[in-house]
Prior knowledge:
By secondary structure, this protein is α+β, with helices and mostly antiparallel strands. The chain has one domain: Alpha-Beta Plaits (2-Layer Sandwich). Helix content is 31%, strand content 37%. The chain has an 8-stranded antiparallel barrel, surrounded by 4 helices. Helix 3 crosses helix 4. The chain is globular.
Amino acid sequence: MPAPAPHVTLTFFRFPWGERRWAMAQMHRMQAPLRQVDGLQFFKLLGTGGGSGYSFWPDLGTWAVLGAWREEQAAVAFHAAHPAHRAYLDHAQEAFTLHLRPFQSRGAWSGANPFASGAAAEGLPLAVLTRATIKPGYTLPFWWRVGRVARSLEGRDGLLFTKGVGERPWVEQATFSVWRSQQDMHAFAHARGSMHAEAIARTRQGAGFREELYARFSVLHTTGSWHGHDPIARARG
């Protein structure tokens, strides 16, 4: 595994009905081309959950690609012209890419921590990613708690964007959210009696994860749109 990457991208693609089979097939077919991309140190092809992403049922119209890069220039070049990215754009009806600078990361993903740690950028929105491999006996209790957390997120002040993603349905899951500020995120995550705090405490107490990772990022910039607009732009403007 190379050194932890200082630049991360996460792209969400929305596909029309006629392209969903193509999108699903890329979970296997795109693995080899992405391994050859210069500067791409770590990547994951991800499905998403229904609604805001935290439904037990998948969203077959939305897929995502996460990349950890040796440098920002390599990421920009890939998204500008690489055939693998262009293939997704040719089939998708919409794409939204977040360029992220990791500043805190602990745990492991596929046996290693792919994200660098450093200083947070002041004044930029905060992105948070948590992921885990769920032990089989904890799948149903985990999803019951996830549903409660998702409901507690609805209309939350300071939440700009959120979507649940995963490598394999129900057992390898991640949550991704973007907040106006660290203060907004902390107010949600650590509020007394919050569903989020309860879910974390109960899952760790039960040792229900085989592997987990928690990372924070500064949102440097975005490209594209999500349902017709950039949900992060209002935090910058």
